[in-house]
Design brief:
single chain, mainly beta, Rieske Iron-sulfur Protein, 4-stranded antiparallel sheet, globular
Length: 105
C-alpha cells in the first residue's frame, strides 16, 4: 500500500472534503462528523466525476453530479440508480496530525 498525506487534520474538519491526485486517479476524502472516508472520484455508471458532486455529511453520502446516483462514502456502494456497481474506497487514518490515505499500488 502506498500512503498519501492529504493535509493537516485541522484543515479537514467535519463537513469538509478534499480532492487529491493519486497516480492515475483522483480520490475524494470526506469528513463526516469526525469520521474520515476516501472514495474514488469516478462514478461507476459512466466514469464521470463523483466526489465533485453534492454530498451530505450527516448521511455520509455523495451524489453524482451527472445523473444523480447516491453513493455510500463508507462502502462505495450505490444507493440509487442509474449506478449499480460499487466504486473503490480507501482506508483513511490520522498519523502525527496528518490525514493519510492508503492507496493500492
Amino acid at each position: 500500500m502506498a500512503e498519501i498525506e492529504i493535509c493537516p487534520l485541522d484543515e479537514l474538519g467535519p463537513g469538509k472534503m478534499r480532492l487529491v491526485p493519486a497516480g492515475t486517479m483522483t480520490i475524494g476524502v470526506f469528513n463526516c462528523g469526525g469520521s474520515f472516508h476516501a472514495i474514488e472520484d469516478r462514478c461507476s455508471h459512466d466514469d464521470g466525476p463523483l466526489a465533485e458532486g453534492d454530498w451530505d455529511p450527516e448521511a455520509c453520502v455523495v451524489v453524482c453530479p451527472r445523473h444523480g446516483s447516491r453513493f455510500d462514502l463508507e462502502t462505495g456502494i450505490p444507493m440509487s440508480l442509474p449506478a449499480f456497481e460499487a466504486v473503490k474506497t480507501f482506508p483513511v487514518s490520522v498519523r502525527d496530525g496528518m490525514v493519510v490515505v492508503d492507496v493500492e499500488e
